[in-house]
Amino acid sequence: MTAYLAAEDLSMFGRDPWWLVVIKAVFCFAFLMVTVLFSIVWERKVVAWMQLRIGPNRHGPWGMLQSLADGIKLMLKEDVIVKRADKVVYVLAPIVAAIPAFMAIAVIPFGPAGNEVSIFGQRTTMQLTDLPIAMLYILAVASVGIYGIVLAGWSSGSTYPLLGGLRSCAQMISYEIAMGAAFASVFLYSGSMSTSAIVEAQQDRWFVILLPVSFLIYIVTMVGETNRAPFDMPESEGDLVGGFNTEYSSIKFAMFMLAEYVNMVTVSAVSVTLFLGGWRAPWPISTFWEGANHGWWPMLWFVVKVQLLLFFFIWLRGTLPRVRYDQLMKLGWKVLIPVSVVWLMLVATVRTLRNENYAFSEIALYVGGAVLVLLLLSFVADMFRNRQEAQDKPAEPAAFDPMAGGFPVPPLPGQTLPPVPRRRPRRERELIVSGGSDTDSDGSSSGREASDG
């Protein structure tokens, strides 16, 4: 860890002239916008291919300008502002949701910090800037975007957007906790929170190999953080009409969609930086080509990895159905957070033993023994609990009153509805209403009496 800390040299940042900083900032913005435009078309094409459809094929060659046409259409549509809305907050909410999505890309490295490239004769790094706490900066700006969703639901002055905004906020907050724990495991192995130092720490081995559980936790949390399928609760029209953006139209609605897709690109870039070697070339290429990680080539490897993760988003959307909200929150609070905390403690233990110069065999023995002890204790606790439950007699369910409080209520677990009185057959009801006999037998007997007379 000390070697990685010593390698954290950020002196090459902050030396660019102002015009070069502007160029790099415009490049980061253009990279996100172009990637979003391509991702929308790519998503529609891939999902259409999965569902045996054609997909967009009208605007531009092979329909590649479809997303640009959709953006222009949304800009030209009528901009409606709800009467009961808080107009200032109503207008600012899409901006608050969109701007933080663009800010995180500022600290993502597109190439090695020590390998400077030439732009108009000026040597510079392939990264806008870097910070000793760059990953905390990413978490901070990501959390600010939640305010845009909450304020959008509240400022609309309607019930359904408020409910959609609240549950979207709860979803994003709950998944950020597990995401932070996954980040902490990377910090322990790299010894730094700087994005460029984290990529440098993966020179020998990518963290997806060293920290596979952290990678899987982050993959799940980044899908929940971006409100994508199967966790797209804001778009569950059957529950809440349309979620927090129900009352939005025109360019403001487009900004929410833009923020969602930009967040997809951002979380994919963060995943590449933390776990997939960042700008480094994949293993087969880096072994036989020495110049694969020099010049402008690192940007190509970075973009390819980001596109593969975007395809993973699209694949999930075309494969998995939407989960229920209770399943979503149960996964976040009862599965991901405990697993991420236990895994973080395990990683911290291993790093501490490595710093104390313990051999790998000894570390594996200690960790394996601790895991076996925990499993044994869990087995014993479950055995005693099952025995106790078997001894206790099940309590008689309380009598269920479906009209408790004067309103019909559904039964709780263990309760049953009272039997419904059997209704007369339809033919009997028609006879009674028309003044006929009460039963078929009465009708048949009266008919026989008439014939005898």
Automatic annotation (TrEMBL):
It holds the Pfam family NADHdh. Residues 408-420 have a biased composition (Pro residues). One of its GO terms (molecular function) is oxidoreductase activity, acting on NAD(P)H, quinone or similar compound as acceptor. The lineage of its organism: Bacteria, Bacillati, Actinomycetota, Actinomycetes, Kitasatosporales. NDH-1 is composed of 14 different subunits. Subunits NuoA, H, J, K, L, M, N constitute the membrane sector of the complex. Residues 434-447 have a biased composition (Low complexity). Its EC number is 7.1.1.-. GO terms for cellular component: plasma membrane. Its main location: membrane. It is a multi-pass membrane protein. It catalyses: a quinone + NADH + 5 H(+)(in) = a quinol + NAD(+) + 4 H(+)(out). This is NADH-quinone oxidoreductase subunit H. It is found in: Cell membrane; Membrane. PROSITE patterns: COMPLEX1_ND1_1, COMPLEX1_ND1_2. Residues 395-453 are annotated as: Disordered. It comes from the Bacteria. NDH-1 shuttles electrons from NADH, via FMN and iron-sulfur (Fe-S) centers, to quinones in the respiratory chain. The immediate electron acceptor for the enzyme in this species is believed to be ubiquinone. Couples the redox reaction to proton translocation (for every two electrons transferred, four hydrogen ions are translocated across the cytoplasmic membrane), and thus conserves the redox energy in a proton gradient. This subunit may bind ubiquinone.
